[in-house]
Design a protein that fits this description.
single chain; about 375 residues; alpha/beta; Rossmann fold; 2 domains; six-stranded parallel beta sheet; 16 helices; globular
C-alpha cells in the first residue's frame, strides 16, 4: 500500500506537534514491510523534518509565503498526476488537491475543534473562519476521518454532523524517553523551585487567569513560574507580570527538546490551565520526565491523563490556586502523581499510533 502525504503541515509549521505527528507516522509506516508512506514536498523550513532525517531543501526566499505554499502545492499536483498511490492522507484541511488525487480515498486527521467551540469567546479565533469552512468541506469529502481523542470525536459529531462510524480515534504519543524512576532534579532550595507552563499563551490557553490566580502562591512559597516556549512575553504580558509584583517570579525560556526535558525533570509540577485541547502531548512529556501534572478538568485532558493528574476548574481562580498549593505542600501527592503518570504513559506509543492508523487505511482501501 502506498500512502500519499501532502505538504500542508510542513508548510504551515516550522516546528510543532502536528508536523512531529506526521514525521512519527510516516517514519513508522516506512519502517514496516509492505507499506510506502510518501511525503510529497519540494521544500520546507520545518525543523522536525531534519530531525527525522527527511531530505528536504530549505525554502530560499524569506518572507514569500504565498510562493512557498503554491510551489509546494504545484509540486504535489504534479506528483499526484505522475505517480501512483492507493490513498491520500491530507495533513491539514485545504482540500484543493482532492480533485487531482485520481478518486483515491481521502483520509485526514482532526486535531481539535478549538475554532468551532471557542471562536465566540476569543477574537483571534473568530478572525480565521476559513479553517472552520475548510474542515466542514474536507470532513464531507473524506472516506474516513481520524480524531486524536474521544473528546475530539465527540465534538466533531456534534459540530459537523458526522456519523460516528466515519471517525476513528487514534491516540498520539510523546517522543521523550521515559526517565528512570530515581531521576529527580527538583531542588529543595526555595528560590530555585518552579512550576512549569509549556507552549503558546493564546487567550484560550488561560495564561493570564493562571498567573493572577497563583500570584499569591508564588510569593508565599517563594516559587517561580517558568514559561517554556510559545514566544517571548509580549509588552502586555510584561505589564501584567510587573503589576502583580511577579517580575522576579515569572520567567520565559526558549526551548528545544533537550532543554524542555530538563525543565520537566526539575519542575515541582507541570500546569496546564487551557480551556480546550484536542489531546495534550505535554501531559505525556511530563509523565515521561517524572513531573506531576496539574490540569484543567475540560475537553480531552481528563481522558488522556486519567487518574494520574490533579484537576481544577480553569474558570475558577480558587480551584486553580488550591490545586497548585496541594501539590506544593504535600509530598505524598507529588509522589503518587509521578507513579500514576508513569503507569498511564504505557497506554500511549507511536507504534500504537502507526498500527491503528494503518488499520484505518486498510478498512477503506
Amino acid at each position: 500500500m502506498r500512502i500519499f502525504f501532502d505538504h500542508q503541515a510542513f508548510t504551515i509549521q516550522n516546528f510543532g506537534g502536528i508536523s512531529r505527528y506526521y514525521c512519527e507516522l510516516i517514519s513508522g509506516i516506512n519502517a514496516l514491510n509492505f507499506y510506502d508512506a510518501h511525503l510529497s514536498i519540494l521544500w520546507s523550513n520545518n525543523e522536525n523534518l531534519s530531525e527525522y532525517d527527511f531530505k528536504v531543501s530549505k525554502f530560499p526566499f524569506l518572507g514569500k509565503h504565498r510562493l512557498y505554499k503554491y510551489s509546494n502545492q504545484a509540486y504535489n499536483i504534479l506528483d499526484m498526476l505522475v505517480n501512483d498511490f492507493d490513498l491520500y492522507h491530507a495533513t491539514y484541511f485545504d482540500n484543493s488537491l482532492k480533485k487531482f488525487s485520481k478518486k483515491k480515498p481521502l483520509v485526514t486527521t482532526f486535531y481539535d475543534m478549538t475554532y468551532e467551540i471557542l471562536s465566540k469567546d476569543f477574537k483571534e479565533l473568530a478572525n480565521d473562519k476559513s479553517i472552520i469552512e475548510q474542515k466542514k468541506v474536507i470532513a464531507n469529502q473524506a472516506a474516513h476521518l481520524i480524531a486524536i481523542s474521544e473528546s475530539t470525536k465527540k465534538d466533531m459529531i456534534e459540530l459537523l454532523n458526522i456519523q460516528p462510524e466515519k471517525i476513528s480515534v487514534v491516540y498520539l504519543a510523546s517522543t521523550f524517553e521515559l526517565c528512570e524512576p530515581e531521576v529527580n532534579m527538583k531542588t529543595e532550595d526555595g528560590k530555585d523551585q518552579y512550576l512549569l507552563f509549556v507552549g503558546k499563551r493564546d487567550n484560550y490557553k488561560n495564561f493570564v487567569p493562571l498567573i493572577k490566580s497563583i500570584s499569591f502562591i508564588l510569593k508565599k512559597y517563594r516559587i517561580n513560574l517558568i514559561c517554556a516556549g510559545g514566544g517571548a512575553f509580549t509588552s502586555a504580558e510584561h505589564e501584567l507580570i510587573n503589576s502583580l509584583g511577579l517580575s522576579d517570579k515569572v520567567y520565559y525560556r526558549d526551548i528545544n527538546d533537550a532543554t524542555l526535558q530538563t525543565l520537566y525533570m526539575g519542575a515541582l509540577a507541570f500546569i496546564f490551565p487551557s480551556l480546550y485541547e484536542g489531546f495534550g502531548i505535554p501531559i505525556l512529556e511530563a509523565f515521561s520526565c517524572n513531573c506531576p501534572c496539574i490540569l484543567s478538568n475540560v475537553s480531552s485532558l481528563p481522558e488522556i491523563a486519567g487518574t494520574a493528574a490533579l484537576y481544577f476548574d480553569p474558570k475558577e481562580p480558587d480551584s486553580m490556586m488550591n490545586a497548585v498549593e496541594k501539590v506544593i505542600v504535600d509530598n505524598s501527592v507529588k509522589h503518587d502523581l509521578i507513579i500514576q503518570g508513569r503507569k498511564r504513559l504505557t497506554a500511549f506509543s507511536w507504534n500504537n499510533t502507526v498500527t491503528n492508523t494503518l488499520n484505518v487505511y486498510k478498512s477503506i482501501v
